[in-house]
Amino acid sequence: MRFDPITYGSLRKHQMAAYSERHYGEREWRLRKVRALIFHYTAGPSYTSAWNTFESNAPNLGEYPGVCTQFVVDQDGTIYRLTKRDVRCRHTIGLNHRSIGIEMVQEALSSPAATSQAILDRGPQARAVVRLSAWLKQLYDLKMRNLIGHAMANDSPLFQERTSWRNDHSDWQAPQVRKLHRRIAGLIYAGHNRAAAPRGIASGALDSRSARPRRGSW
Ligand SMILES: [Zn+2]
User: Fold this and answer.
1) Residue pair 80/4 in contact by the 8 Å Cβ criterion
2) What is the rounded (10 degree) CA torsion for 42, 35, 26, 39?
3) How remote is the CA of residue 92 from the centroid of ligand 1, in Å?
4) What distance in angstroms lies between residue 161's CA and the mean position of ligand 1's atoms?
């Protein structure tokens, strides 16, 4: 993982706090309670173009700060962290105060499903997304159902918005997100099995049920 920070100084903090007050009713730029991960794709050609967009701090829907995301996963599997994990980024209306954004570099194809599927089919990138998501899920003890696509955000029970704004983005819809969930669960499950296996004993020799993480914790 590489730290490749965008500018998030006092101006952007001030703008983010004001945005939070308008949309969530609290003047705050810090991200204190992470409850969800939101999957996005950039609909652009490269990591550099995505970084430049997030750095530009251009107004979006007439408001500052500009859009941003905490993480970007490039097509070669490199994970870039653009901000500290404990700052809010504008990536998803109604959820910026309680979620981390994961952008994936991918141009838009014929449909949102095809675009997400292209990422799922690209080995290094998909594995990096799964690894990053599994790590963050465990770090913040997130429920699997709160790992969602941008296209699913308006329907999240965590969605909270004081204005009439709603998301109109179609990136990462439920069927492709379910495929990500299966891979994330598989990685966490495999990790638990490895951790439970004493040295010299293949994990397959163990009773896998005893190593299984509680379902409720997913
Ligand atoms: Zn998005």
Assistant:
1) yes
2) 10
3) 7
4) 17
> CA distances (Å), 6 to each of 51, 74, 212, in order?
7, 16, 39
pTM equals: 0.88
Distance from the CA of 188 to the center of ligand 1, in angstroms?
25
Would residue 186 count as lying in a domain?
A: no
d(CA 107, CA 118): 9
pLDDT tens-place string over residues 7-45: 999 999 999 999 999 999 999 999 999 999 999 999 999
Is a pLDDT exceeding 90 seen at residue 207?
Answer: no
Cα 69 to ligand 1 centre (Å): 10
Instruction: For residue 149, report the distance from its CA to the centre of ligand 1, in Å.
Output: 8
> Could you give the number of structural domains in the chain?
1
Q: Residues 44-72: what's their mean pLDDT?
A: 98
Which residues make up the environment of ion ligand 1, defined by Cβ < 5 Å? 40, 150, 169, 171
Q: Confidence class of residue 214 from pLDDT cuts 50, 70 and 90?
A: very low
Domain of 11, CATH number, reads 3.40.80.10
**Distance from Cα 171 to the centre of ligand 1, integer Å:** 5
Residue 197 lies in a domain: no
Distance 89 CA to ligand 1 centre (A): 12
- Please give the pLDDT value at position 193: 72
Expressed as residue numbers, the domain containing 79 is: 2-174
Q: Tell me if 55 is assigned to some domain.
A: yes
pLDDT category at 199 given cuts 50, 70, 90 is low
